[in-house]
Amino acid sequence: MKSRLLMLTAAMLAAGGALAAPRGFTVEDLVKMERVGSPALSPDASRVVYTVRSTNLEKNRGNVQLWMLDLRAAKPAPVRLTQSDASSTDPEWSPSGDAVYFLSARSGSSQVWRLPLAGGEAARVTDLPVDVDNFRLSPTGERIALGLAVFRDCADLACTKARIDAKAKQKASGVVYDRLFVRHWDTWADGRNAVLYSAPIDSSGRVSAAPVSLSGGIDGDVPSKPFGDRDEYRFSPDGKNIVFAVRVAGKTEAWSTNFDVYQVPAAGGAAPRNLSADNLAWDSKPAYSPDGKTLAWLAMARPGFEADRFRLVMMDVATGSKRTLADNWDRSIGEFRWSPDGKTVLAVADDIGQHRLFALNAASGKVTPVSGKGYVSAFDMRGDTIVMAQAHLGSGAQLFKTKLGLDAAAATQLTQLNAALLRDVRMGEAEQFSFAGANGATVYGHVMKPWNAVPGVKYPIAFIVHGGPQGSFGNSWSYRWNPQTYAGAGYASVFIDFHGSTGYGQAFTDSISGDWGGKPLEDLKKGLDAAVAKFPWLDRSRSCALGASYGGYMMNWIAGNWSDGFKCLVNHDGVFDTRGMAYSTEELWFTEWENGGTYLEKPAAYEKHNPVLFVKNWKTPMLVIQGDLDFRIPTAQALGTFTALQRQGVESKLLMFPDENHWVLKPANSLLWHHTVKGWLDSHLKP
Questions:
Q1: What end-to-end distance do the CA atoms of the chain give, in Å?
Q2: 550: which of 459, 469, 530, 544 fits an S-S bond (Cβ 3.0–4.6 Å)?
Q3: Which is catalytic among the residues 392, 630, 652, 674?
Q4: 597-622 pLDDT, tens digit each
């Protein structure tokens, strides 16, 4: 019997390697992982369509396709709905549940397509001379809203296409500008605006007449650039009206956050009406209650401040009276959805190192957690069924199903993406901790062990500083800054949500403005000391600090103000000179709020925590990384950093990506980034 068992075990090992030795997580794993998103429940909540992004390393790009789960099955099995060399994104169900609409460029340009679920091929819904960037169906299925990039002074879409074609044939490349934005994020302004259109749909689900412009009379973008999406506009339940958010641009666009909510007839024919003119700060993401009697949207209170708390405003459609729901709940809402009965609003928000889904009672404002620990990146609700994409430090996002009113722990996992890819991977264990930071405030952080940590052994530290700075590095999964890539390489990691981070109340978030190099640096010092004292497997003598954006700024600040703190530094797209940043970044409202005005008005505020003033103290080896398409923190900042290092003889390297923006997104570039960073850490922290 014993020999037969041994033979069976050997056969199993030979057949599939089922008992392969465990290994650490690698950047190759990270790049190859499938990524889930955009869950969309059918009207009867019996099925969910979602997107899965895979990576083609040969073509050096991702590809997104649609999948579906039948939630009526005891064990729902994923069914692939689309397969094309072009991606299929933004799924939306027809009101009857017989078809799924989506975006795809499979015809050569981005258009809306319709896939009947009873069988048959996807049919094109739109055939426009310009790309469709986003869309939304009316609840009645009679109209479709379309986001298009057009020249606002063109009489029709053909005019926009003709101008684009003519520009491509011009030999001269110069462009004359007379106002900001000249460029935004990673794109130079070309005179086009994102404009909201609508068109009727016939009985076959196709557009039956030329789209009409709804927002073209406004000098602004719908959705907003660069990251706005279709959550910035919605139909009324009867399909007769559309509400949308827009910032009137003019010459103040680059320093204004005054987005407003407008209402317009869905068929056009009347000028949009401003519903939030009384608020000079940011208003966005409007959505009607299911009965159409209440219109809700997210609103900030302070003009010019992009990281103010987003509150939920509820407007009585009949009277125009407004109230704030859950005004005493000190969290900033990211996304929200009405429940079908209108009694509940689901919303996501940062919360002490998590990004949770909450249920808000639409009458009383009572707040109840729906999800447990982790990061909810997307969700949908039909009836009392909720499907959400949730990740944590040990796993990329998976789909989960729950019911409104159930305990957060009752969610059922629906997908098992990357199970085969990662079957032999042992992830690093993470733990949250807290300590007394600046001014004695409670500050939170996380630590992560190497994947193969052994009791009694100390491990070198990757000390990661998040960007924003009004952001959070908590219990989430990232495809850029992921602690598991360091854990898989034998490093421990520590990351702190310093003063200015989100999810700890608005006062905590506010505290960094005007104090970039003050309380945050104190928190980082105290946080690292607290982690080393609490977790004996951290080797403080072997530590490097890394960060991007504000985290990159902090690397430059550490170099001059904590110069004996680390063996090495990694600075990705970091601010070197706050004065140069004030005159070269694109979103001026950010630097002007953080420093209390323009550089002309408040030069001392900009210079107070300016890394360039402390270059004489620099001695820590630094790896500098920059994307040349980063218009947020332009390339001159990285070149200044590298020049200062080289001119003083400080060990340094510069990694430039001519085709990346503030983020490194292309698969091959991501591999190069991670291998370069790992090599830098290895050379300073490992024997």
A1: 49
A2: 469
A3: 630
A4: 999 999 999 999 999 999 999 999 99
Backbone angles phi, psi at 36, to 5 degrees: -95, 150
Q: What are phi and psi of 343, to 5 degrees?
A: -90, -15
The yes-or-no answer on residue 549 being catalytic is yes
Between 398 and 4, name the one with better pLDDT: 398
Average pLDDT over residues 475-480: 98
Q: How many CA atoms lie within 13 A of 519 on its CB side?
A: 22
Alpha carbon separation from 554 to 49, 220, 565, 582, 611 (Å, rounded): 42, 34, 12, 17, 9
- Taking 3-state DSSP, the helix, strand and coil percentages for the chain, each rounded to the nearest 5, stand at 20, 35, 45
Residues 579 and 498 sit within 8 Å (Cβ to Cβ): no
**The two three-digit tokens of residue 337, written as one number:** 């959805």
**Residue 479 DSSP code:** S
For residues 589 and 593, what is the distance between their CA atoms, to the nearest angstrom? 6
Number of Cβ within a 10 Å radius of residue 289: 20
Q: What residue spans of 398-463 are helical by DSSP H?
A: none
Distance between CA atoms of 127 and 109, rounded to whole angstroms? Answer: 9
Confidence at residue 151, expressed as pLDDT on a 0 to 100 scale: 98
Q: Can you list the domains of the chain with their CATH numbers?
A: 430-685 (3.40.50.1820)
Rounded to whole angstroms, how far apart are CA atoms 195 and 213? 7
For residue 393, give the nearest of 451, 335, 458 by alpha carbon. 451
Query: Which of 493, 549, 652, 670 is flagged as catalytic?
Result: 549
Residue with tokens 């004030």: 582
| Distance separating alpha carbons of residues 407 and 8, to the nearest angstrom | 44
Per-residue burial over 529-556, b if 16 or more Cβ lie within 10 Å, else e, is ebbbeebebbbbebbbbbbbbbbbbbbb
Length of the chain: 687
CB atoms within 10 A of CB 526: 18
Instruction: Return the structure tokens found at 456.
Output: 């009694």
CA atoms within 13 Å, Cβ hemisphere of 135: 32
Instruction: Find the farthest-apart pair of alpha carbons in the chain and give their distance in angstroms, rounded.
Output: 87
Point out which residues pair with 194 in neighbouring strands. Answer: 149
Residues contacting residue 170 through CB under 8 Å, at least 6 positions apart: none
> 132-171 pLDDT, tens per residue?
999 999 999 999 999 999 999 999 999 999 999 999 999 9
CB contact at 8 A, 249 and 155: no
pLDDT band at 12 (very low <50, low <70, confident <90, very high): very low
Give the β-pairing of 344-351 and 385-392: unpaired
Beta strands in 226-366 (DSSP E): 233-235, 241-247, 259-265, 273-274, 283-288, 294-299, 311-316, 322-325, 333-338, 344-351, 354-361
Q: Mark whether 327 is an active-site residue.
A: no
Cα distances from 512 to residues 228, 300, 502, 515, in angstroms, run: 26, 18, 11, 5
Q: 263: which DSSP letter?
A: E
Active site residue 355: no
Looking up tokens 């030999």, which residue turns up? 171
Helices 550-561/519-534 angle, 10° precision: 80
**Judging by DSSP bridges, how do beta strands 88-93 and 79-80 pair with one another?**
unpaired
The C-alpha atoms of residue 88 and residue 102 are separated, in whole angstroms, by: 6
**Distance between CA atoms of 258 and 313, rounded to whole angstroms?**
16
Query: Which of these, 20, 13, 30, 9, lies nearest to 486 by C-alpha position?
Result: 30
Q: Is 619 helix (H, G, I), strand (E, B) or coil?
A: coil
Helices (H), 346-479: none
Look at residues 177, 176, 196 and name the one whose alpha carbon lies nearest to residue 136: 196
